[in-house]
Amino acid sequence: MAGTSVNITSYRKERMSEISSQLKQGITKACLLVERDAKINAPVDTGRLRSSITNRLDIENDKLIGVVGTKVEYASFQEFGTSKMPCHAFLFPALESNKNRIVELLKGI
Length: 109
Hints:
Number of domains: 1
Structural class: alpha+beta
Shape: elongated
């Protein structure tokens, strides 16, 4: 066995990079689904709330997090209601109605 050598090559970094890229694309697509339906569901007076709904991809402690929301100050009153106003939820129903599509979308990764 003199002169015999074994070379083991790991493609872990390359594969992890590929998986991360695919996950980013999948989560972005999922966010777009939810954003679209949230805009459809949003109550409209001036259109400010609807046009303010956006999505983004955050990375925290090696975790990919898809975020869909708005910074309009009255959005939470619309979503959850107040003591004087019923809720007109738009974000949670958008997520709920797309849950199965999101699972299927991410299964393919």
